[in-house]
Each structure stands twice: as structure tokens, then as C-alpha cells.
Write a structure and sequence with these properties.
The complex is a heterodimer of chains A (214) and B (273).
Chain A lengths: L6 H39 L5 H16 L2 H11 L5 H26 L3 H9 L4 H31 L11 H12 L2 H30 L2
Helix pairs in contact in A: 1-4, 1-6, 1-7, 1-8, 2-4, 3-4, 4-6, 6-8, 7-8
Chain B lengths: L11 H4 L5 E12 L2 E12 L3 E5 L6 H8 L7 E6 L2 E2 L2 E3 L5 E3 L2 H7 L3 E4 L11 H11 L5 H14 L15 H13 L5 E5 L7 H17 L3 E5 L3 H7 L2 E6 L2 E6 L1 H6 L4 H10 L1
Parallel strand pairs in B: 3-10, 3-11, 8-9, 9-10
Antiparallel strand pairs in B: 1-2, 1-4, 4-5, 6-7, 11-12
Helix pairs in contact in B: 4-5, 4-6, 5-6, 6-7
The chains are: A mainly alpha (214), B alpha/beta (273).
């Protein structure tokens, strides 16, 4: 292989990629927040003892999980054509991952021992206080590692946002690469930035997990 | 069940008994599927009395405590506490109907329970475990609740563990905290469900000594399920011997442990003593 690596392209594209990276980061952080909160609400709604709630909730989460993220993005972009693309992207990422996280939360809530619920009843704690003070803190601790993994996975799926015109990092790399015909350099750089961000995050999650271990 | 519309708090069934009855089981049946755990059970406990339930595993002893704590619902019959229905409530027509959650939340406040597996909240420190319910259920101020908690920790001999997490305590220490947590709600009735069964042998005596002290120095009514027969003999006013969901014999500890009438009781005692 005798490819003529262009260090100049690496240097020149870096500021653009950095801009894109900030968009990627914003989408990931906000998307994760939406997913974490919405996923929890969905998991709690699944425990309401009436089918009026559980059946529709179940139907929506099944739909979201059974269709590709790309299709959901393009569909939402076409449907809500007056909303800013980045906003749509964050909402779709958040809802898509909420559907997965709701199952994670469900498992986390189920893993809280029955004795904890019974102790709450024996102390006459209200349902609200039972969730807030006892069940959720333990459930969230149970699911934190999985939550971190989904956040990293979402981070790596943000390039899909390019199809709805959000100029995140990979879109920037492609644009610069196309203009200067330096795809190898800019895409390698984008990949390294992803790696540089993901790997320490996953290490951090592992640390956190160890610290929170009972 | 027929009721007297003029007397809100007393049903004919309750009125026929001495008012000293704090707890009364009235033909209580508990079924799990086809399996009958309690079979038309009648018994009563007087205020301040310490009653021990003994008998082989699966004879329904723990179910009685769980029904009183409203962790389970009766299949039939009525449980009365202080002349008021616990398992039921009065409808607009004065008749008894199965209790809803709201009724249960109100009536279970007088009752406290200590579990075999302690069930402390692992996400809270010892102090919070004890103050959580007094603050959020009884509406005590934080300072007052903490003062009460410190007194109770002193009583159970764990003053130095205020800021510890439950996972840092031994089983015996956890169970002492659980006892303090139950007492912090100032229950009229305390239910002890095999509280030493999950403890290492060398930790059992300490917890039992603590419970003896509580039994002898307070006027809390106690219902105790235990396999510790010496403990039962020390604290009980009344011993109920269960077999297959029925009380086959009851009486003072002296009578039951020294001169039981039923062969089944004798057999059981010789196996556990």
C-alpha cells in the first residue's frame, strides 16, 4: 500500500471535526437524559395494575424497538418538518433508547428484594415514599452499569443524525473529505476522537460501578 | 355478617368478647390456591400479652403474622384489632367489606414487624433507616426523630453505629437495628417473625437477650414466631401450638412445655428441644 498520508488535511480538518464533536456530544448527553427519564417512566407505567396503561405502553415500546433508528429518524424528520433537525434527532434518540432502557429499569426494579417492599409496608410508608426513598435508589444502582453502556452505544450511533442534516462529527468528516479527497485522514481522525471519548467513559463507568457495589 | 348500625366501632361479634382483646382472629381462613394454610382459625391476644406461636414449618405461624401486618389478605373470616376490623372495613351500609389500600395503610400503623431477613434499607445509613418512617409517616420533626433513634440505638447497644451502612454490620447488629426501626414507630403490637433464624449461632443469644429486655420492660403486645423454645418459655404469657393450619393446643408456657396434652405437641417439642 502506498497511500500518501496527508498530515495537512488532519490539521486543517480538526477544527471542523471538533465542531461536529460538540454537536455529537450535545446530542448524546441530552438524548441520554431523555432516555433515562422516559425509560424510567415507561418502566413504572408498566407496573400500573390496569391494562388501560400497560397495553398502550407495551405497544409503543414494541414498535420503537422493532423498527430501525434510521427509519425513525427520517420518518420524524419528514413528519415534523418545522422542528430543528437537531431537536428531532435528540428526541428520536431519546425515545429509541428509552424503549430499551425501560426493560433495563424493569429488571432493576424487579431485582429489589421483596423484603424491601414488605419492610416499607410494615413501616406504613406511602407508595410515593416507598418508590422515592427505597425502591428507586436501589433500582438505579442496579442498572447504572447498563445505563452507561447504552449511553456509549448512543454516542456511537449519533452519525445517523447526518441523514436528517445534523452536521455532527462524521458528517463534517465526510464533507471535508469530499472537498479535499482526504477521506482516509478525516475518517480516521473522527474514529480516533470517538475512541478517545468512549474508552475513558467506559473505564469511568466501571470505576463508578465498583464504587457503588454493595 | 350482621352489624349494629348504632354502634360504629363494635360489632356483635366483638361485643361478646372482653374488651381486653387487642387482637382477635374470627374464623380466619387463608388459602394459597388450593392449599389451605389457615383453617377457620380463632384466637385472641390481650393487650400487653406476649404470645408465642410454635409448631412445625408450614403450619401457618408466619402467615398469621403476615396477615396481621397486612402483607397478605385473608381468604375468609375477619381479623379484629382493638375492636376495629383490620382485614375489613365498614361500607356505607355498615356491613363489612374487604379493606382497601387506604384502610390498610391506616390500620397497620399500630403494628410493627421484625423480619427473619432484617430487611434494612441498604441505601440508607443506620440512623436514616430508623428515622425514615417516623419523619415521613408520623410527621415527626427530624431532630425529634433522630433523638428517638439515638435513644433506641442506645437501647439495642449500637450507639456507635449511627453512621454505618447496614452492609457494614453483622447479622446480629442488623437485626438489632431492625428492632430499633420497628420500635421507633411506637407500635402497640410487635410481630417477631423468626428473628434469629438467619443469624450465626453465636449472635443469637445477644438478640434474644435484647428481646427479653424489651418484653419485660415495655407493655408492647407481642406475637412471636420462634424455634427458640427457651426464649419462648421466658417471655410468653401464652403459647399456641400449631399443626396444619390449626391450633391444636394452647396454654401457659409451663403447661405446654412441661405437661402438654397432645401427643403431637410432645412429639414436636422432643424434636426441637
Amino acid at each position: 500500500m502506498n497511500y500518501d498520508w496527508d498530515w495537512g488535511a488532519v490539521r486543517d480538518s480538526l477544527p471542523l471535526l471538533w465542531d461536529g464533536f460538540l454537536t455529537t456530544l450535545l446530542a448524546t448527553v441530552l438524548g441520554t437524559l431523555v432516555a433515562a427519564v422516559l425509560g424510567l417512566l415507561v418502566a413504572m407505567a408498566g407496573r400500573v395494575p390496569t391494562r388501560l396503561v400497560t397495553v398502550p405502553v407495551r405497544a409503543v415500546t414494541e414498535f420503537v424497538r422493532s423498527t430501525p433508528l434510521l427509519v425513525q429518524l427520517v420518518g420524524a424528520y419528514a413528519f415534523f418538518n418545522t422542528v430543528k433537525p437537531l431537536t428531532i434527532g435528540i428526541a428520536v434518540l431519546g425515545i429509541h433508547y428509552a424503549a430499551y432502557l425501560s426493560e433495563v429499569y424493569r429488571a432493576g426494579i424487579d431485582a429489589v428484594p421483596k423484603g424491601q417492599w414488605e419492610a416499607c409496608r410494615a413501616l406504613s410508608l406511602s407508595p410515593r415514599r416507598t418508590w422515592q426513598a427505597v425502591v428507586l435508589p436501589q433500582a438505579v444502582r442496579n442498572v447504572l452499569p447498563a445505563l452507561g453502556n447504552y449511553a456509549i452505544s448512543m454516542f456511537k450511533e449519533t452519525p445517523f443524525l447526518a441523514v436528517i442534516t445534523v452536521t455532527e462529527m462524521v458528517a463534517q468528516a465526510r464533507e471535508y473529505g469530499a472537498d479535499h479527497f482526504t477521506y482516509a485522514e478525516t475518517f480516521t481522525l473522527a474514529g480516533l476522537i470517538f475512541l478517545a471519548a468512549s474508552y475513558p467513559t467506559s473505564l469511568l463507568m466501571r470505576k463508578l460501578e465498583q464504587r457503588l457495589g454493595h | 355478617m350482621a352489624t349494629d348500625p348504632l354502634q360504629k366501632t363494635t360489632s356483635p361479634a366483638a361485643a361478646t368478647d372482653a374488651p381486653a382483646d387487642l387482637v382477635r382472629f374470627d374464623r380466619v381462613v387463608k388459602r394459597f390456591g388450593d392449599h389451605v394454610v389457615l383453617d377457620r382459625l380463632d384466637f385472641s391476644v390481650q393487650r400487653g400479652e406476649h404470645v408465642t406461636l410454635i409448631g412445625p414449618s408450614g403450619s401457618g405461624k408466619t402467615t398469621i403474622l403476615r396477615l396481621l401486618m397486612t402483607l397478605e389478605r385473608v381468604s375468609d373470616g375477619v381479623i379484629w384489632v382493638n375492636g376495629e376490623p383490620l382485614s375489613h372495613m365498614r361500607g356505607a351500609d355498615g356491613n363489612l367489606k374487604p379493606a382497601n389500600e387506604k384502610h390498610l395503610r391506616e390500620v397497620r400503623r399500630k403494628i410493627g414487624m421484625v423480619f427473619q431477613q432484617f430487611n434494612l434499607f441498604p441505601n440508607m445509613k443506620v440512623l436514616q433507616n430508623i428515622t425514615e418512617a417516623p419523619v415521613n409517616v408520623l410527621g415527626l420533626g427530624r431532630e425529634e426523630a433522630e433523638e428517638r433513634a439515638r435513644e433506641l440505638l442506645d437501647l439495642v447497644g449500637l450507639s456507635d453505629k449511627v453512621d454505618a451502612h447496614p452492609s457494614q454490620l453483622s447479622g446480629g447488629q442488623q437485626q438489632r437495628v431492625a428492632i430499633a426501626r420497628a420500635l421507633a414507630m411506637r407500635p402497640e403490637i410487635l410481630l417477631l417473625d423468626e428473628v434469629t433464624s438467619a443469624l450465626d449461632p453465636e449472635l443469637v443469644a445477644g438478640v434474644l437477650d435484647l428481646l427479653r429486655e424489651i418484653a419485660h420492660t415495655t407493655d408492647i403486645t407481642m406475637l412471636v414466631v420462634t424455634h427458640e423454645m427457651n426464649f419462648a418459655r421466658d417471655i410468653s404469657d401464652q403459647v399456641l401450638m400449631f399443626d396444619s393450619g390449626r391450633i391444636i393446643e394452647s396454654g401457659s408456657p409451663e403447661k405446654i412445655f412441661s405437661d402438654p396434652e397432645q401427643d403431637r405437641t410432645r412429639e414436636f417439642l422432643s424434636a426441637v428441644l
